[in-house]
Amino acid sequence: MTIDYLPWNCPARLAGQVCLRDTDGELTHAEVARRVEAAAEQFAAAGVGRGDVVAVMLPNRVELLLGLMAAWRLGAAATPVNPVFTPNEAGYQITDSGAKLLLGAADPGADYGVPVLAVDELSASPFGTLPVPDTRLDDLALLIYTSGSTGRPKGVMLDHANLVAMATSIGEVLKLSPDDNCLLVLPLFHVNAILVSGLAPIMAGAQVTILPRFAPDTFLAAVSRYRATYFSAVPAIYARLAELPAGQLGDTSSVRFAVCGAAPVPVGLLERSESRFGFPIIEGYGLTEGTCASAINPLDGPRKPGTVGVALPGQQVAAMRADGSFAAAGERGEVVVKGPNVMRGYLGRPEATAETVVDSWLHTGDVGILDEDGYLTIVDRIKDMIIRGGENIYPKEIESVLARHGAVLEAAVIGVPHEIYGEVPVAYVVTYPDARVTADELLAHCRGQLTKVKIPTAVRIVPALPKNAVGKTDKPALRASRG
Q1: Strands (E), 297-420
Q2: Which CB contacts under 8 angstroms, 24+ apart, belong to 407-413?
Q3: CB 457 within 8 A of CB 425
Q4: How far is it, in rounded angstroms, from Cα 204 to Cα 202?
Q5: What are all long-range contacts of 132-139, with beta carbons under 8 Å and residues at least 24 apart?
Q6: Rounded Cα–Cα distance for residues 341 and 337 (Å)
Q7: d(CA 218, CA 28)
Q8: Does 341 score more than 50 pLDDT?
Q9: Is the pLDDT of residue 405 over 70?
Q10: Which of 22, 14, 92 is nearest to 55 (CA)?
Q11: Half-sphere exposure (Cβ direction) of 203: Cα atoms closer than 13 Å
């Protein structure tokens, strides 16, 4: 098995074809290989070698993918960092991952404790100083950080075998070919963008066109300009597109299909979007610990709106009862996944890994039902995770930030429905009896510690939080009583 998304493994017949582009220009497969080699030389000069980690903190642009590949050229791993993270959030990830180098925009006001290579200083011409590539399937490739029950993000370890398995199965089910051009609009610090919109099309010899961010009018203009054949998005994007007047829909005739994932999507929104734009929207399901995707509605086979489809090739998806037995068709159970896509584990957290991967089955924390044809419907979430416009938000992380304020005795964060984003976080806070603090002051405290998407839309100061029989905050009761 070869790692076909690595540029030095690209077939010679594709060398002159466009591989990557963004709003600043485009690169052929051969140019990508040269740029990656040059960047890898710079990484090596900074002390990066096999087994090390490079942090990449950039907005969507071709250099972000070049940085990942340059790390892989040396047998190192990469950890993509959200470019709008506060120094507190970014510093934690960089330190926890053990990164030896940060590729990012120059920020003289931040000190992350590692050397910084400014993106504008990346070389475009290699000197030929590196040995022959020796990137292996069992090399750690990505450290993607996802928050957990402790309130501190955990590094999900994905090796190249994980990435190859995912990119191969995505390419197979979506029938990707060199004729495709994927419009990449989701943020590249997520596995969805890296795998479904990045490595899978590169592996198929297709083009990847990277947009810096989503805006309805510019997105549709890009679809038309670049003749995109597919894209992957989240429900919030389709909701924004569905709001556009009929006269602003543009030319979407080049699009074969679109993918929708990251959060449940109403059937009505899917139907409205498909009727407006004229291409199928394929709903799927997965999580970072499973290298992005585990189920998807078939592109050409029967599609069942309201479900997230069937297991991807090479994977098993099941519903498991609390006693560890498998649920029957039509019966609820925890969604579990098995296959070569399952993560290596959480970095430095063997206990959390052992709780999540049991007998090779990845426990997702989601409740689902499989029908007799193997189509999965997600019906609930065991965990308290909030999905805001496709972004996973973990209440414990917000609660931990609020708890660091001197006036806060207790804090609980829940998701409340939102017309556009699906859910947004709202915080309930109990203060010390003699404390004097306002909701606005607590929101300002959050803004200094959290990315904008994680900041609660409201902070409500209450006399007490509901508790269950063992003294824990009763979030179901809090949700039922919100107002």
Answers
A1: 310-311, 316-320, 333-338, 345-346, 357-358, 361-370, 376-381, 386-388, 391-393, 408-418
A2: 407/431, 407/432, 407/435, 407/436, 407/437, 407/442, 408/432, 408/435, 408/437, 408/442, 409/435, 410/465, 410/473, 412/465, 412/473, 412/475, 412/478, 413/386, 413/456
A3: yes
A4: 5
A5: 133/6, 133/8, 133/73, 134/75, 135/3, 135/6, 135/72, 135/73, 135/75, 135/160, 136/75, 136/160, 137/1, 137/3, 137/161, 137/164, 139/50, 139/72, 139/75, 139/77
A6: 9
A7: 24
A8: yes
A9: yes
A10: 92
A11: 26
Q: What is the pLDDT of residues 75-91, one digit of tens each?
A: 999 999 999 999 999 99
pLDDT tens sequence across 92-111:
999 999 999 999 986 666 78
**CA-to-CA dists, residue 37 to 42, 137, 351, 424, angstroms:** 9, 19, 38, 43
| Residue corresponding to tokens 């190192």 | 76
**Tokens for 270?**
């899917």
The torsion angles phi and psi of 55, rounded to 5 degrees, stand at -90, 135
What predicted TM-score, i.e. pTM, was given to this entire model? 0.87
β-bridge pairing 458-461 and 391-393: unpaired
How many angstroms separate the CA atoms of 143 and 41, rounded? 22
**What DSSP letter does each residue of 63-127 carry, written as one string?**
HHHHHHHHHHHTT-EEEE--TT--HHHHHHHHHHHT-SEEEE---TT---SS-EEEGGG--SS--
Q: Look-up: residue for tokens 């003749």?
A: 227
Residues in the chain: 483
Give CA–CA dist 248/246, Å, rounded: 5
State the average pLDDT over residues 344-357: 97
DSSP lists the bridge partners of residue 424 as: 416
Cross-strand partners of 117: 103
Residue 7 burial class via C-beta count within 10 angstroms: exposed 0-12, middle 13-18, buried 19 and up: buried
Q: Which residues are within 8 A (CB) of 46 and not within 5 positions of it... i.e. 6 or more apart? A: 100, 101, 115, 117
Q: Which domains does the chain have, with CATH numbers?
A: 7-370 (3.40.50.12780), 386-481 (3.30.300.30)
Question: Element (H or E) spanning 326, and its range?
Answer: none
Q: Are 388 and 237 in contact (CB under 8 A)?
A: no
In this prediction, residue 343 has a pLDDT band, given cuts at 50, 70 and 90, of: very high
Six token digits for residue 209: 């066109």
